[in-house]
Amino acid sequence: ASYGPNPICKGCLSCSKDNGCIRCQHKLFFFLRREGMRQYGECLHSCPSGYYGLRTPDMNRCSRCRIENCDSCFSRDFCTKCKTGFYSHRGRCFRGCPPGFAALEELMECVEGCEVGQWSEWGTCSRNNKTCGFKWGLETRTRQIVKKPAKDTIPCPTIAESRRCKMSMRHCPGGRRPAKTKDKKKKKKNLMERAQKQHSIFLATDKTSQ
């Protein structure tokens, strides 16, 4: 029987013109639908989004999930599927996964991510495998992977990083930089050539004046 456009007495054991289904058949769930100021009962094979089926000896009912942003739940405090844009994690729904967990986009779930240890101390400042002879070099620090991620597609954070550093010894002990030695020899040669040229000009001028 049908009473008006909204409540349909399908699967009801008892039905009211004003309130719709009052009791449902044994395998169906009683759901109290609200539309504005009006509410009426329906008997459903499965509960709608945001509700879960609660079976009791008296009558099976659809109860509301208490988890925020939950689309379907196993019980009132454990969500099995979150609304669009939210990730499921241990029965809750999140915009982003908690620290230590990574988002599995195809299932919209948070799974165990890649866990890394603490950073080591910064290493020795060096350049071209030398710790002297240059003004600037690079120093590096590393950390170990403590636990691999649940899936190979989940990337691990960087485990090594370097930064620019100033060397404590710019000049190597007991040695000279070849480039500077060459520069000194070249400057000395230029000075000698310039002095010889000026001396030749002076002699030529002196002969002319005589």
TrEMBL record:
Residues 9-110 form the R-spondin Fu-CRD domain. GO terms for cellular component: extracellular region. Keywords: Developmental protein, Disulfide bond, Glycoprotein, Heparin-binding, Secreted, Sensory transduction, Signal, Wnt signaling pathway. One of its GO terms (biological process) is Wnt signaling pathway. Its main location: secreted. It is found in: Secreted. Residues 170-210 are annotated as: Disordered. Residues 170-189 have a biased composition (Basic residues). Gene3D superfamilies: Hormone Receptor, Insulin-like Growth Factor Receptor 1, Chain A, domain 2, Thrombospondin type-1 (TSP1) repeat. SMART domains: FU, TSP1. InterPro entries: Furin_repeat, Growth_fac_rcpt_cys_sf, R-spondin, Rspo_Fu-CRD_dom, TSP1_rpt, TSP1_rpt_sf. GO terms for molecular function: heparin binding. It holds the Pfam family Furin-like_2. It comes from the Eukaryota. Belongs to the R-spondin family. This is R-spondin-2. It comes from Glareola pratincola (Collared pratincole).
